[in-house]
Design a protein that fits this description.
The chain has 160 residues and is of the alpha+beta class. The protein is 18% helix and 47% strand.
């Protein structure tokens, strides 16, 4: 289980997909990309999807994702994404009352129970008290992390 904090954008793609019975149907699928801006998110999702979709496709929507962090799984059965809301419990020293602060996480897992297990594993090192407020499967198809290109990795004087 690895996590990554970044600037995440949810993107919706519309394209014609071949169904199991061989017919063609227009579908809209949701993906998440790591990008610095809306324009870079559009560029990245277009680049990523070009290798998966043979025909034309359209970026229908891009919006900033509200995930505090995304927890990836290397488990081969992890084929779904779950939105998990955690409530962090803090004690207000002045009033002595309990305060709760909600944070959304995206968790990669194969089942709902697997998502709970993965979030508990990821949060195992935290000293702050929390409770899992909700776990729900999303319609996200995939999450694309930013990958450093070889050309990005070389010093400027070598890039010619």
């Amino acid at each position: 289980m690895r996590s990554r904090t970044a600037n995440w954008f949810e993107c919706k793609i519309r394209y014609e997909k071949t169904q199991e019975d061989g017919t063609q149907k227009f579908v809209i699928e949701a993906y998440v990309v790591d990008a610095l801006s809306f324009s870079e998110a559009e560029e990245r999702i277009t680049e990523e999807m070009s290798s998966y979709i043979s025909g034309a496709f359209e970026v229908k929507d891009i919006r900033k994702a509200s995930y505090g962090e995304i927890f990836f799984s290397d488990d081969n059965t992890a084929d779904r994404w779950f939105k998990t809301k955690l409530e962090f419990i803090m004690l207000d020293e002045k009033s002595g009352k309990e305060k709760r602060s909600g944070v959304n996480y995206l968790v990669h897992a194969g089942t709902l129970q697997g998502a709970v297990k993965n979030i508990e594993k990821a949060m195992g090192g935290t000293l702050q008290d929390y409770s899992i407020a909700s776990v729900a499967e999303t319609k996200l198809m995939d999450v694309f992390e930013y990958k450093i290109k070889e050309s990005d990795d070389k010093p400027e004087y070598e890039q010619q």
